[in-house]
TrEMBL record, chains A, B:
CDD domains: TrpRS_core
Species of the source: Pseudolabrys taiwanensis
GO terms for cellular component: cytosol
UniProt xrefs under InterPro entries: aa-tRNA-synth_Ic, Rossmann-like_a/b/a_fold, Trp-tRNA-ligase, Trp-tRNA_synthetase
Family listed: Belongs to the class-I aminoacyl-tRNA synthetase family.
Name assigned to this protein: Tryptophan--tRNA ligase
EC number, as in UniProt: 6.1.1.2
Gene name linked to the record: trpS
Top-tier EC class: ligase
Keyword DNA repair: no
BP-aspect Gene Ontology terms: tryptophanyl-tRNA aminoacylation
Sections of the chain in a coiled coil: none
Amino acid sequence: MHAPSTTKPVILTGDRTTGPLHLGHYVGSLKNRVTMQDTHRQFLLLADNQALADNAHDPEKVRRNVIEVALDYLAVGIDPEKTSICVQSGLPALCELTMLYMNFVSVARLERNPTIKDEIRARGFGRDIPAGFLCYPVAQAADITGFKASVVPVGEDQAPLIEQTNEIARRINNQIGRAVLIEAEAVIPKVGRLPGIDGKAKMSKSQGNALPLSAAPDEIKRAVHQMYTDPNHVRVSDPGSVEGNVVFTYLDAFDPDEDGVADLKARYRRGGLGDMAVKARLEVLLQDLLAPIRQRRAALARDPDFVFDVLRDGTRTARAITQATLEEVREGLGLFELGF
Amino acid sequence: MHAPSTTKPVILTGDRTTGPLHLGHYVGSLKNRVTMQDTHRQFLLLADNQALADNAHDPEKVRRNVIEVALDYLAVGIDPEKTSICVQSGLPALCELTMLYMNFVSVARLERNPTIKDEIRARGFGRDIPAGFLCYPVAQAADITGFKASVVPVGEDQAPLIEQTNEIARRINNQIGRAVLIEAEAVIPKVGRLPGIDGKAKMSKSQGNALPLSAAPDEIKRAVHQMYTDPNHVRVSDPGSVEGNVVFTYLDAFDPDEDGVADLKARYRRGGLGDMAVKARLEVLLQDLLAPIRQRRAALARDPDFVFDVLRDGTRTARAITQATLEEVREGLGLFELGF
């Protein structure tokens, strides 16, 4: 489809295929990816294998959402001519690399990983952590190094995963005696994290406080109507608080007219500006943002052959790259080759 | 090479490729495998991936011994027309199955495995167990189920590994809703464990008490000469002890003339039979046993193309089988398929 550029830095990012993406993803990563695809050689990984680590008992959900997330990518403007969208389970070299790397990482080191600790707590695994979950930083190291990515956009809480990746890369390089694998830079994108419509810190489908990218006009309307504002701002004339007020946080994220937003905030703080008026302004913005995304998504959903072709092309490209890395690592380590 | 029989039970066994095989292997497994290849559809796995779990820092050793162990197999009479000899790292489907299964086994369950506990202790890993080592029972479950083996010969101490395998098979089958995977039977072969020539319970290259299958006549002579007998049997006329006397243990294992051995034992116990006489008898037996093995091995070593062809054929056959199992499991779980 496109000649891989050798000059652009390689960026790897993606999503676990556990559900369609929402407005929080748009602000937190998708918008950034649409920009990055012009300046970087970008790979988006539909991480269906990794999704199984805590969804082993609902593989059907994981399968279904491969297409849902791919639709979200394409709908927001990810261009398959610029970005390779690939399916993780279509890349067996990543499993082979993971198994190799697992010999170079101790269990104690994995257990110390702060991200893993937090996630084990959040998921309530207790002592019943699946082995696949404990080892997912190793699988992620295989993803990143397999693509020879030099840039990996991560949330602040995920920086330890990149440290783990680079530690593995150094160990493998050290064992081989030269730098076959590339160390990656964790880039924490300068994007806001969008709170849920209920005011909770994180927008999440499972918390029921998310606005999906495919939301219908009514759903957008309802979500804005339900949005958490200032519970003490009872009458229009009351002074209101802007801090922690989701509607204003969203205006900061989506309203290009910064002066207009500043003016609204001042009026809201003084009193005399009702929630309804602010919400009306936000609703127009969200309807305008989401309408073309929803329409492109619906059109793409009617053309599954096209979407499959995009995934097949992207995965084929990714297969060649990850297979080449695997072969380099195996050859570097001096492993046995049958030569077929 | 041969049409896979659908009626013969499938047997999977093999060796980690960490060193050439020795007389202990011959008695403990190889002899049995030569017999089994007539009654079973037998696969011998050269487990180079698994060997890396505790040899990550010496991959060259693991590579080199793929050929060494293959030579041992062929030299003792494993017939590639009857047995598929295959290289584990040439079977990526096993890595993919391992990664899938890892989501169905908890870390706590792996830590409870008595075999793993013992081996962690024996290898002195302490808290620095490589993740690959902790998870190797999962990889072994992938091997066994990947081949749909119904029979797995194991040492007594390895029975927990088959329990773990069958537990995983049941979980996967349960998730799928039908028996895609086969539960395997652990068969503890009725073979003696040959002690080391120094009288230690286990013959092991690392302990320096092993007699390799490729041993030259001088090496055999020296080994028999050094063999541990009865330290209290100083003069020929002294009564001697047969129990724990390695020479007699070996005669039990290798001398077809049971009555003759019984007679020797009686004379030794009474006094009047010297170690040299008993050792002379054993040496003849061992020279006769090992000479044709050594000669076949040397001839095969001069024909690396033939050995590579055997491994390629066997691995190709194994690839088709393990890939088919992977596809069945993926399809059964309902995972995403790109269809290429």
